[in-house]
Amino acid sequence: MAKNIQAIRGMHDVLPQHSPLWQHLEQSVAGVLASYGYREIRMPILEQTELFKRSIGEVTDIVEKEMYTFEDRNGDSLTLRPEGTAGCVRAAMENGLLHNQTQRLWYQGPMFRHERPQKGRYRQFHQIGVETFGMAGPDIDAEVILITSRIWRALGLDGLELQLNTLGTAEERATYRDELVNYLQAHHDLLDDDSRRRLAGNPLRILDSKNPAMREMLDAAPTMSAHMGDVSRAHLDFICETLTRAGVPFVLNPRLVRGLDYYSRTVFEWVTDRLGAQGTVCAGGRYDGLVEQLGGKPVPAVGFAMGLERLVAVLEEIDPDAGAVSADLYLVLMGTAAEREGLVLGEALRNALPGREIVCHCGGGGMKAQFKRADRSGARYALVLGDAEIEAGTIVLKPLRSDEEQFVLARDAVVATVVERLSA
Ligand code: ATP
Ligand code: MG
Which ligand is nearest to the CA of 256? Predict the structure, then answer.
């Protein structure tokens, strides 16, 4: 017999027992974003490879070794999106969303990176991201950070740490970069292979290395702050002050750099210690250079993306039952006449009880088997209908979560009684 086909390594199914928590997460985030006036944008999952090369940058982990790139039947090079910012900027430019206007956008969906799969790191993973355009001041940086903080509160997530840094302007970063490269070259013998490779193309990213052997040397490396101009400093100060006044604690982390080339000024990450090495659940910052880099007129931009698999993992760790859902009512239906009646009664009950979960037993089977299903559904009550009840014009209401006795109802009292019971 042929071997069963399995999912691609690093790509996972969200099973029915987990999807309620995913929905809860997605709906909570969408609710918070709506409350700040952000609008959803949906982009294709495939884009031209060139888009990511030009935006993320050739000398990044993503473009160098993580993209799912292939030729389609026309010989065009396409890539499954590894992140959402590039596609969002492309869509905004292409649809004229950036001309003399501001935009507050969000998106969600799967992203694809060919990384080594491990806990919190997958080849298909999901993000909800925010991108804002047309606002140059630090107010919008502060707003997007406040949004993330409110999202954690809405989810009941505590213990996340906000880390904040500034990468300055492109010019400030260039002088800092020279100083950093000099320092790193002086410690060349301590650099690992990855870092040596990055020294020419993406030296800031070396600061982000997780290699413990380089920790001490990197801790002593020069920081950006000496190269920061007044405007950049005022920009950062505004954000810090706003967060403080709004009661959002943060730590300034001069080592925080983002892996992507297009960031400028503000960068931030939310980190948890609950997930081991994969502790960053949300990352973002300002990327004023990107629109121009993609061929448009310069447009200031700020955004972030959160990793949903990591958030789901934290939510589950805090509360293993988080997101669990159960039925309210289960209809046990014995015999063909009852099956026919039951489906119609189910409709009447759902009309009277919007939002409640009412499950009609389908597929037949004995009383015992049906009650087993009813019990597994988590329903508080079962309604039992068989030939005898049909003939008598009655139905049996049986509490499933208490010792209370079952009782017989007249058929025309069923809906009112169930409404009363479930509202209690
Ligand atoms: P890391 O340093 O963990 O590789 P990154 O800098 O590559 O993260 P971003 O591109 O900033 O990540 O993506 C934003 C968020 O998306 C991350 O903070 C993380 O929560 C999530 N994320 C990124 N890559 C993965 C992945 N392979 N699997 C699961 N989640 C991911
Ligand atoms: Mg990465």
Answer: 1
